[in-house]
Prior knowledge:
Blueprint: E1 16-24, H1 27-30, H2 34-44, H3 50-59, H4 77-89, E2 90-98, E3 105-109, E4 112-113, H5 119-122
Antiparallel strand pairs: 1-2, 2-3, 3-4
Helix pairs in contact: 2-4
Amino acid sequence: MRNNTEDAKGKGWPLRIAAVEVRVDDASEIGSDPEREIAFVKGVLGMLDWYTLVQGASQLGLNTLPPTLTEEMSKEPDFLRALYHVLMNVHLVKGMLTCPDTGREFPVTDGIADFSMEEEECENVRH
């Protein structure tokens, strides 16, 4: 996620995560389809900023992702399913997202981030 307000000037990425509550869904409770999970991860793998994903996962208390992604890993079904779990079953329930450039904070409550702008920020938005 990125802070796109004028103050951040395009440098508000990635937002820092300060987690108060994290929920990790158990795949066995919600069901799983290994072929679908693997296909999904293969489809999004090229779009992921790996460093940012590892950093965000760490800020949520997950330190199991390797620091770099190798070609071999991207072909390993067990790794792809584990990555699916991180992407789809780990949720920030309560905490704060902070812009690294401006320090602006965005609260997260019940899994929903509040990116509402203050009135003075809206003055520069064009209709």
